[in-house]
Amino acid sequence: MISPVSPFPGVEIDSVPESSLADVVNAVASARIAQVAWSNTEISHRVKILDKFHDLLLANQDELLNVVQKETGKSRFHAADEVFSLAMIAAFYAKIGKQALKPQQRAGALPFFTKTLMVSQPKGVVGIISPWNYPLTLSICDALPAILAGNAVVIRPDNQTPWSAIYGLELMSQAGLPDGVVTIVTGEGNSVGAALIDEVDYVCFTGSTKTGKVVGAQASARLIGASLELGGKNPMIVCADADLKTFLEVAIRGCFTSAGQLCVSIERMYIHESIYEEFLRAFVEKVKELKLGAQLGWGYDVGSLATDALANRVTEAISNAVKQGAKIESGGNRRTDIGPNVFEPTVLTGVTKEMKISTEEVFGPCVYVQSFATTEEAISLANDSIYGLSASVISSNSKSARGIAEQLRSGSVNINEGFAAAYGSVASPMGGMGQSGLGRRHGIEGLLRFTQPQTIAQQRWVSIGPKFGFTEERWTKLLSKSLLILKRLRIR
Fold first, then answer.
1. CA–CA gap between residue 492 and residue 476 (Å, rounded)
2. Is 234 exposed, middle or buried (0-12, 13-18, 19+ CB in 10 A)?
3. Distance (Å, rounded) from C-alpha 466 to C-alpha 178?
4. CA 118: distance to chain centroid?
5. Which of 136, 6, 131 is nearest to 80 (CA)?
6. For residues 203 and 129, what is the distance between their CA atoms, to the nearest angstrom?
7. Residue 229 catalytic?
8. I need a labelling partner for 352 at 20 to 30 A (CA). Which of 27, 203, 303, 491 fits?
């Protein structure tokens, strides 16, 4: 059995059975059977299920928030992000699905005589290996476009957070999803997760870059596709013309949502030297005002880290930085008086490139702040990372901010927001550059990754080979002249 431990004092989480490797093989085999029937259903029927799922998410949000809070320790307001983002994703794919998956006519080999269609075929069975930090969103958000495209799905949620995935699947079933189209297996990633990759036709993984490389290598060895959303060390550039009120609101949310336990959280902040002292002072004061908590319900700003191991890792990262010369401006303490894994939102200065914390992801409520003199310097500092997942630019000049954004090596850039604007724009793709991953979720790109394009070409009336008594030589010359004419006419 798997027995998760809630980060909330006195709160218990029910155990769940642990899947064996044979269970994984059987789950995928059953999914293959279910997928055949599911892929033959009308897309309009699949759309109705996504629409109904959207409504059920909102109708059952109190119960979902309880589950997410119990498993992760995040504040209730931050837990609500999961329900809302998942509802937005369901609504978006329900809106575009029918048109996006419709067979498309393409130019044929011979105009008028060749009718060519591109048909989007499902991959088959998709494996999803989801993390603990956003357990509802990240276990289900990739499943929605996958099933819309006609695939079956097997999900392996993290052992800390199985119930978020289970409740999500329960709502999908209530929405009308047939049994077996989406199933859940449980267990350790290096055993059950690895076994899942060995069986499926496509894999989605969200987690660390280190593990993502292992997943990618295993998938490539089988010649199956993979989308990987991995780590980040996300920068924020605060320009000289930034509005202080906007900066404070955005920075607090960008750095400390879910206690910093999200891949798009801001961990590096670069403030123009002309406003550095003022903005740093105001930011530190605002951070000190944040209320901490570790219990179900509303009433506090920042919740707990999910596990003891995570709290230990954050403690060690900050302690090592201080030993190397970094200065704590705010926070820096583990607050076991509030909850066993609660850690104060922490602001550091004096971080140098030689320190691990300057380049390695903390994945906790910690940000370091540094000044810059020129825009070129800020861009260089922001791009000085192996990662490229998310970034932020704070400026009152939209044109200037966009110019900076386009020079950042990052899959998503938010202007006057930390991460929510880009992540919430579910019609646009989201993913990483560099070692922050491969592929994209959201947008039409996030749907089509679960399909295989199939070309169906029908030749009519005239064959492509020599006709009308032409020799092969004369036919070749005729084709050459025809291609030149077609180019001038822009038919091809």
1. 18
2. buried
3. 52
4. 28
5. 136
6. 8
7. yes
8. 303
Burial 322-333 (b: 16+ CB within 10 A, else e): beeebebbbbbe
Q: How many CB atoms lie within 10 A of CB 489?
A: 9
The residues that bridge with 105 in the sheet, in sequence order, are 117
Q: Which residues pair with 115 in a beta bridge?
A: 458
What span, in angstroms and rounded, lies between the C-alpha atoms of 389 and 433?
6
User: 21-230+441-452: which CATH number, 3.30.200.20, 3.40.50.720, 3.40.605.10, 3.40.50.1820?
Assistant: 3.40.605.10
Say whether 263 is catalytic: yes
Q: What is the dihedral of CA 442, 268, 71, 69, to 10 degrees?
A: -90
Q: Considering the candidates 229, 267, 361, 417, report the single residue annotated as catalytic.
A: 229
CA distances from 178 to 60, 137, 156, 310, 335 (A): 20, 21, 19, 38, 46
List pLDDT tens digits, range 158-177: 999 999 999 999 999 999 99
Residue 402's identity, in one-letter code, is R
d(CA 425, CA 435): 23
Q: What is the DSSP letter of 142?
A: T
At 211-253, the pLDDT tens digits run 999 999 999 999 999 999 999 999 999 999 999 999 999 999 9
> Mind listing the pLDDT tens digit for each residue in 300-310?
999 999 999 99
pTM of the model: 0.95
Active-site residue among 255, 263, 329, 366?
263
CATH classification for the domain delimited by 234-425, as one of 3.40.309.10, 3.30.70.100, 1.25.40.340, 3.30.70.1070: 3.40.309.10
Phi-psi domain of 73 (left: phi exceeds 0; alpha: psi -120 through 50; beta: other): left
User: For 4-41, what is each residue's pLDDT tens digit?
Assistant: 999 999 999 999 999 999 999 999 999 999 999 999 99
**Local structure of 453: helix, strand or coil:** strand
- List pLDDT tens digits, range 262-279: 999 999 999 999 999 999
d(CA 195, CA 186): 11
SS3 366: strand
Extents of the domains making up the chain = 21-230+441-452, 234-425, 462-489
